[in-house]
Amino acid sequence: MLKKQHLPPNIARLMLCVLCSSLLTGCWDRIEVEDRAVVLAMAIDPVKDDEQFQDEEVTHERGQEPRGGKIRVTMQIAVPGRLPLGPSDGGGQGGAGETKPVWVLTTEAYSLDDAFANMQQQVADQLFFGHLRVIVISEKLARRGLQDINETLRRQPEVRRTAWMLVTKEDPGRLMKISPQLERVPALYLYDMVDHGVLYGKLPRANLGIFWRSVSAPGQEGYVPMVESRKQEDVFTSGLAYFRGNRMVGKTEPFQIPLFMEVIGVENAGYSTLFPLPGKRGWVAYQGTSRRTEIQTFIRNGKPRIRVKIQVEGNLHEKIRDPRGNFDQETIRKLERIIARDLQMKVQDLIHETQQKGSDIFAFGEYVRSEYPDFWRRNVEPHRKGWERWFRKLPVDIQVRAKLRRIGSEAK
Q1: Which one of 62, 156, 326, 386 is least enclosed by Cβ atoms within 10 Å?
Q2: What is the average per-residue pLDDT within 80-101?
């Protein structure tokens, strides 16, 4: 029989100490919260040629600056100890409190990373982007192209993919200084506005990670919400900005947002739409509640085709200028056909607009690529413009069915 062999006591104690010491290790690169400058929001817009430009010379010598456009970056930085736990501070002043919870700083630079370096020269603590919630881009800069902006943000490991990128046609720096009554921190209000819009069926989910994934996909283009500040405390969702690659090429109207969501199959519906009653006797407000979408792809005569089947359900919320009182079943069926026909025409118009711009925000190309990979390798990949060349002339058949679920107490 073999005898059991035991380790010498000294070696056993040494191994036990080594194992226990691994449980005592900490974060080697930790930085205390008090030593971080937490960036909550950021606005980026181009500096006009006729504007005075302040070259900080932090990352370069004078005369060795990079060529190209100049940008202005505005940041909201959280002030330690002033971030509220609720929407207001007990005084009921909301965003008009005496102590501001954020510090707004602006710098001008040749690139986004250059702006970060310039901003760090103004802030004692290290900039931290782990809690960045919103990035607001001016429409002029978005139409110029966001290649450099996305390049820098993607290389920044602290930037979370759950942050939102927004586009505005005005000065984005204004949105860093708004004073909403429901939230003292402007960045959190902007974030809640778009995030709750997804929850209530007002917006498709289009955060930073989804936008980057769409831009990188060969058969899809990216889109982000558009907002505008009409007053110091008012922000309005004005549509969707859609891209071709990293460059913005068009935008939708607010009423086209639910049309887009119907095509891509967002189940939750939260918009009201006005439709005429049969016989032009008045109008009704139709509130969508849910939708189902099926996208089918075909190859006919060597060319792709798309069929989109949409089923929408909703309730009648209001009647406007209707001299008659009750609704009978025949009127309800006619109204459902009017709603379906109107939605079909508006969806076709939206698809036609995006086809003219060559921006497939509906991901039709991804459906073709996944179901017909051989066709994609032979006919799409070899061409320089790729799927854009096919999408511009892609036949799309739209079929819509509408259902009225709740009519109201006056229906017969």
Answers
A1: 62
A2: 56
